[in-house]
Design goal:
The radius of gyration is 21 Å and the shape is globular. The protein folds into two domains: 237 residues, Medium-chain alcohol dehydrogenases, catalytic domain (Quinone Oxidoreductase, Chain A, domain 1, Alpha-Beta Complex), CATH 3.90.180; 140 residues, 3-Layer(aba) Sandwich (Rossmann fold), CATH 3.40.50. It is built from eleven helices and 20 strands. The strands form five sheets. Strands 3, 5, 6, 7, 8, 19 and 20 form a seven-stranded mixed sheet that branches. A six-stranded parallel sheet has the order 11-10-9-14-15-16, with helices on both faces. The chain has a three-stranded antiparallel sheet with strand order 2-1-4, with no helix packed on it. It is an alpha/beta fold. Helix 4 crosses helix 10. The N and C termini lie close together (10 Å).
């Protein structure tokens, strides 16, 4: 089968890092690239607790683009194993089930929770985080009977979604009901990221919420708040007109366009704040949102998240920010902000009980409270990966979620 793999080699890394500043296509369309499109053997079941999945759709995530553009922090490198097949947003069907898997059979449609926690790694005594159901905080991501890897799509032993087949532990596969189609299925992973961030950091009734970013995660956060029935006011800061339309469609009350300095005045007014002029540098905002979800991970978006928060407000970082200079942390201590990171999904308190995040996402879609299929704007065959990646990186063409259909 064909697969798109990432294989780190220092000479290629350095060459593409330098030339990619001037010629971005070097990152995926060059012998200097760490990306490889090759024939690979189909993965085999590690043991009888695993299933083999035939991929129907696999999404291109912002984290995948960070990987390809070599923007990831070196701090994440111990938690991958090379070469690995990329792709962690996956909907497919069971092709083979191990003898100890009773809840799934060949032909079942499934979505995959890609986190490789203690259960998947065959660790008999789970770490404290996994015992509590906090699988994204697993302490043993480099141990057990698998190669290191945060998740499927970053581990050489499991395969990934950017291919025809992958393998997953039975605890990672969730059966899709008939009411949830495949396009919604491929959106369950990013929707679960949003649900996790909202349920772990829920707005209070009547709060003013600011969502920074009109990409997939930003739109999913808006959709999650509305699907969960949290009565609050949502303002969305977006860059492109099509993002504004989707933000409004999924429930944002006010839309602010990121237009140079004009957005500062408009957003401040929307949030009921006041602009103060420092001796030099960007405007200081007095007042702001009760809760800010930062969904971009850039210097400007993080600075805006901090300065547009009210005194004592909360900032949730979902945008996968890495190493960057120029962040002004003054408002964190001056306004006693609560800054919280959010990664992936695990289990949540939902309707009075602990529930896997993926199950919540599936239920909300099955109940008709969220239809995220409009976010899938482009589909490509795996062989056409160059055009797929160009499309995914060029937001001016209206691309939101770009997916492969192997």
């Amino acid at each position: 089968m064909k697969a798109l793999q990432f294989d780190y080699h220092m000479p290629r890394y350095i060459s593409s890092k330098i030339l990619g500043r001037f010629f971005p296509s070097v990152f995926w369309d060059s012998r200097l690239s760490c990306l490889r499109f090759d024939d690979q053997l189909e993965p085999v079941l590690p043991n009888e607790d695993w299933v083999k999945v035939k991929v129907k759709y696999s999404g291109i995530c912002g984290s995948d683009l960070n990987l390809l553009f070599l923007n990831d922090s070196p701090a994440t490198s111990p938690f991958v194993s090379f070469p690995f097949t990329i792709g962690h947003e996956i909907v497919g069907e069971i092709a083979e089930a191990g003898s100890k898997v009773s809840s799934l059979k060949p032909g079942d449609r499934v979505v995959i929770d890609p986190i490789l926690s203690c259960h998947a790694r065959g660790i008999e005594k789970p770490c404290p985080a996994c015992e509590k159901g906090n699988f994204s905080l697993c302490s043993f991501k480099t141990e057990g009977n698998l190669a290191p890897g945060l998740l499927i799509g970053a581990c050489r032993d499991t395969g990934g979604g950017w291919s025809s087949y992958l393998v997953a532990h039975r605890s990672q596969a969730f059966k899709l009901p008939d009411a949830v189609n495949d396009l919604n299925g491929v959106m369950i992973e990013p929707f679960s990221c949003a649900i996790h961030s909202v349920l772990r950091n829920p707005p209070n009734e009547g709060d003013t919420v600011l969502v920074i970013g009109g990409g997939v995660i930003g739109i999913c956060v808006i959709a999650a708040i509305r699907a969960l029935g949290i009565p609050c006011r949502i303002a969305a800061l977006v860059k492109h007109p099509f993002q504004a339309e989707l933000a409004a469609h999924f429930g944002a009350n006010e839309i602010i366009h990121l237009r140079k300095q004009a957005y500062v005045n408009e957003l401040t007014k929307t949030l009921g704040g006041k602009i103060l002029k420092p001796l030099f540098g960007p405007e200081v905002i007095e007042g702001g949102a009760d809760m800010v979800y930062e969904c971009v991970g850039k210097k400007q978006s993080i600075n805006d998240a901090l300065r547009f928060s009210r005194n004592g407000g909360k900032v949730v970082l979902l945008g996968l920010a890495g190493i960057m200079d120029g962040i002004d942390w003054t408002t964190v201590w001056l306004n006693e902000l609560d800054v919280k990171g959010s990664f992936a999904y695990s289990t949540e308190m939902y309707q009075g009980k602990r529930t896997r995040t993926f199950e919540i996402a599936i239920d909300l879609m099955r109940e008709g409270k969220a239809d995220l299929s409009p976010l899938v704007t482009h589909r490509f065959q795996l062989e056409d990966y160059r055009n797929a990646l160009v499309t995914a990186t060029n937001k001016k063409n209206g691309a939101l979620k770009v997916v492969f259909e192997p």
